[in-house]
Design brief:
binds flavin mononucleotide, single chain, Rossmann fold, globular, alpha/beta, 5 strands, five-stranded parallel beta sheet
Length: about 180
């Protein structure tokens, strides 16, 4: 059955995916997330729209830059107020460790802030191939070589499927206006 929504309702429920990506890993995940959410738009962090009134949720995608969120994502996130915000990130290290999960939670919380009325509605983390230029500029310890090699094939097909499923579960049904938010 086709459902005709009022313009106001459609405009109020469009997800926005905002991405920072230096070598393309996070952008690849961002496309999968956008495609999983009906009506979603995808923009680069430095091109975030001035007015965000028609967007909810806002989904921030970024990469681990020396243990921090990249500067363009920090600038974009600082403009968010009163939004449901979800985050995803890629990093070179192992994502399923307490350290990586803690990093993701701290970094996401810092991005949404605690005084702008934003609510953290989900986080997703996966591995991303490390820029060969970075690996060439650092001494190769056995641990590093193992880490770089393990990251080489990511994000892979399973990462993209997992990211799409994660955000669809949280938001896809709520954008149709017919189901409740599950986050
Ligand atoms: C300058 C730089 C710093 C990085 N710092 C870290 C880090 O501290 N920890 C980590 O796990 N990965 C680190 N990485 C790896 C990236 O987070 C990872 O390759 C990511 O997938 C890159 O995303 P992108 O392709 O979207 O730019 C770093 C990569 C670069 C280029």
């Amino acid at each position: 059955m086709n459902v005709i929504e009022t313009p106001e309702k459609s405009a109020a429920t469009k997800p926005l995916v905002v991405v920072s990506s230096r070598t393309g890993n996070t952008r690849t995940v961002a496309y999968a997330v956008r495609d999983a959410l009906p009506g979603a738009e995808l923009v680069a962090a430095e091109a975030m729209p001035e007015s965000l009134s028609q967007y909810d949720p806002v989904i921030l995608g970024f990469w681990c830059d020396c243990g921090r969120a990249p500067a363009d994502m920090k600038r974009a996130a600082a403009k968010l107020a009163g939004k449901r915000v979800a985050c995803f990130a890629t990093l070179g290290g192992e994502p399923d460790t307490p350290r990586a999960k803690d990093w993701m939670m701290r970094t996401s919380s810092d991005l949404i802030g605690d005084d702008r009325g934003n609510v953290l509605a989900g986080t997703f983390l996966c591995r991303g191939r490390i820029d060969p230029k970075l690996s060439q500029s650092m001494p190769v310890t056995p641990e590093r070589a193992q880490r770089w090699s393990a990251a080489e094939t990511h994000p892979n097909r399973m990462d993209l499927i997992a990211a799409a499923a994660y955000f669809a579960e949280r938001f896809a049904r709520s954008t149709s206006g017919s189901a409740t938010e599950t986050a």
